[in-house]
Amino acid sequence: MRAGDICHLAWELAAEHGDAALVYARRASAEFASIGADDRAAFWHALSIFIEDIMQQRLDPEMPIVFH
Question: Residue 24 sits in which domain range?
Fold first, then answer.
């Protein structure tokens, strides 16, 4: 999944669930990590970062994502 796709998914979750989206993503990351599903835990962790940035208005889902 590309970064833009993850950002779009994060935006949809934040729009649909508000603050609870961040709780869901962090919980999913912790639960997958606890059972050793590291790839899934990493995905949900990355998603939680995007959700938090969107909610704090540090990331505009309409703009391209640039990693430095």
Answer: 3-55
